Structure formats: structure tokens, C-alpha cells
Amino acid sequence: MREAALSTPTSTATTLRLTEIFLSLQGETSRTGLPTVFIRLSGCPLRCRWCDTPYSFTGGITATLPKVLAQVAAFAVPTVCVTGGEPLAQKNCLLLLTALCDAGYSVSLETSGALDVCDVDARVSRIVDIKPPGSGEVARNRWDNLACLTPHDEIKLVLAGREDYEWARELLRTRQLTRHCPVLFAPVQGELSPTELAGWILADRLPVRMQVQLHKLLWGDTPGR
């Protein structure tokens, strides 16, 4: 559902490396179903085994911050999500997030949890992944981030099977994740049945929100949806 093409900037002001900007429905988190403008930044230092946006690892175009804000405004939608790749790998992501908040948008950030989230504008809802063993990137989890989270934020764990689930269940207990913010469990598409994950959550009475990727139910794996 890509609604806008990126164009080459003409300014030398603050810049970002962009993969795409598009309008879609938010497919995850507590904002599921809301019309949302997605700003996908390029680049990521992680290589999660089930990543569904590897096309954002390289390439993209350089765009100025004013140009990005203008393209977002053209959609006339109040909800914006900055994602990647790993958006915080670009230092100017922090300036982008603050500028979006200053412009009056309701802003969320999707981040891997491997980089410091504590300097993100407090008005942003930080959606912080915690990587389970099945991702191949469990060693990259930055546990210091937990101390920065508030009820305005969310923790997301994407799980590939029973081993990941049991690891996440234990993490809930040992790290007391729900004391920081809401916690989301989601299945890896094609590896763990949503019905099976739902059954485990109910059997264990876990205080988490089960989610599936709404955009994939609607449009499959089409990029920019």
C-alpha cells in the first residue's frame, strides 16, 4: 500500500537515509488497525533469522528532515511509526522523532532493543524488541533499556517455537517485564502457529498481549504494506 515515492532532496540540512515512506494500517502493537504513516530508515546492525525487511539493510536514498516532514504531512494522518531496519542506528533518528512530536503527531518507534533507547523523546512510544534464542541475536539484547521504559512504551517478543516461548516466559518472571510496560508475544510467521501460541499463553495465564501481524493477513509479504 505504498502511497508516496521518495524523491531526492535539494537541501544540505539534517539528513536521513530512507528506504521508504508509505501509508498503511498499523499491523502490530496496541495501535493495530490505525491508519499510520511509516517512515522506514535504512540500515541495521542485526541479522535476525526471520527478519521480514532485509531490503532495508542497504541502499535507500538520502533525504533532508524537512523533506521527510513534508512527505508525512501530505498523507494527512495523525499517527506515524518510525521503523527499519534499525532506525536508531542513524544518529539523526532522534532529531526526526522529536520533530514529528513537535509537529503534533502521535509517534511510535520500532527498535530492535540492541541500541540505547533512553535518549528517545519521552513523547514517543518505544516498541522495544527482546530477541529470543531462535532469532540468532539473543546476545545483542541491551538489558539497560528496561530501566528507561514507562507504561507509554511496549516490549515485543517474536517467538519461533516452544523453546523461545519457555525462554520468554522465564524472562517475564526474572526480569519482571510487565512492571515496566505492556508486553506483546507474537509468533514467527510460518514457524509457530498463532493458535498454538495462544493456547500456551492461556494455559500459563501469562499477563501478555497476543498479537499477529495484521498487515500480513491483509497483504502478505508485499514490501511497503
How would the blueprint of this fold be written?
Layout: E1 15-25, E2 35-41, E3 61-64, H1 65-73, E4 79-83, H2 93-102, E5 106-111, E6 125-129, E7 154-159, H3 162-174, E8 183-187, H4 194-204, E9 209-210, H5 214-219
Parallel strand pairs: 2-4, 4-5, 5-6, 6-7, 7-8, 8-9
Antiparallel strand pairs: 1-2, 1-3
Describe the overall structure.
The protein has helices at residues 65-73, 93-102, 162-174, 194-204, 214-219, and strands at residues 15-25, 35-41, 61-64, 79-83, 106-111, 125-129, 154-159, 183-187, 209-210. The protein is globular and about 50 Å long. Residues 1-12 have low confidence and may be disordered. The chain is 22% helix and 23% strand. Helix 4 (194-204) links the parallel strand 8 and strand 9 (209-210).
Largest sheet properties: 9 strands, mixed
Averaging pLDDT over every residue, what do you get? 91
Low-confidence blocks of residues: 1-12
- Compute the number of helices: 5
Proportion of residues in β-strands:
15-25%
Radius of gyration: 17 Å
Spatially, the strands of the biggest sheet line up as 3-1-2-4-5-6-7-8-9
